[in-house]
Amino acid sequence: MEQHLKLTENLDTEIQDEQKLINSKLFKTPCYIFKKKKLTSTLDYINHAIKTKYSNIRLAYSYKTNSDKEVLKVLKKKNICIEVVSEKEYKSAKKMGFNKIIYNRQAKSKKTLLDALKNNYIVNIENERELSWLKSIKTKEKIRIGIRVNFSLSDFIADTKKINSRFGFNLYDDLDNILKSIKQYKNIKIVGLHYHVTHMERTPEKFKIVTQEILEFQNKNKLDLDYIDIGGGFDCFNYSEFSFDDYMKAINSCVLNKKIKIIIEPGYGLINSCYDYLTTIMDIKKTKHTNFFLCDGSKLHLNVKSKVNSFDVAFIEEVYSKKSMESYIVGMSCMENDRLYMSYNELLLKVNDKILFKNCGAYTSSWTSNFILKKPYFYTLN
After folding, report:
1. Percent share of the chain, pLDDT over 90
2. Cα-flanking dihedrals φ and ψ of residue 33, to 5°?
3. What's the confidence (pLDDT) of residue 2?
4. Statement: 10-34+273-381 belongs to CATH 2.40.37.10
5. What topology does CATH give the domain 36-271?
6. pTM
């Protein structure tokens, strides 16, 4: 069996710009290039903003967004809270020494759930099965838990798709009964509410609506909360129309009681712009109507669900001809839809030319599987 290669090298900052990256002979392809300085500076910016302007905000990082060890080392050094959604992630975060963990999702095992509570981590309960595990625990102090809630934003925004979530407790249908049930158990105290904003809903306005609705529910039920955990990545730090401040101002505009901590999980915004993916043209196939440029990479290394032209691309030089000719950069897997880039103008690429796919740090390397291809090389730019 072929061994999957993963190479980590610390490289000087002198090759930070795109042309030097593409021209550099230091990189074996295909490879991920992690720009460590970019992540560090983004974390410093957020932490400074929280310290000086948004003191009620707490930052957490979604482990599943990108769990490369070099990324996790930076987060651990900055003492960032890690949000995990599986037993595997939970054990990995503990092994790496993270002392602040949020444990979410309905697939928790009883053993890890109880271990998380024992270690005073934040645990957001998803279902009655998990609640039943808590009822038999004998303790002098109350067990402090959060509750995962869901509701569809289509109830408030006309152009939002109706979503019936399989996660947590519906805010309107069954949460009232759950609260009544919990009150019967003297050993349990609800200290937080958790909601996850889907990737289709990530504008500051929609984060504001979510926060507002949860706070109204809290006030209605007179819940004495420590935190509200709003999951879902921010679309910022990625040349987006929105800034981090846009999200913070939207969320905080409806938070009157600043004693309640608002936990944010902007994994996508944090890591996406910190990664590039470098490939090399291996072969060229020209047909009557279409040209295909085969690279040594694949959409399997980026995101198997991604569509063509999902990522920004940089070339070594101007490669667009004025001639009309459908041109594709395709991956080396056996899948017909393994197409990474498309142009309606002829591409003047040559064998051995390098292509840099930019802003691909979120849900790419963490999704890479062993299917067909070896895993890409991995480099860290300090």
Report:
1. 54
2. -120, 110
3. 29
4. yes
5. TIM Barrel (3.20.20)
6. 0.89
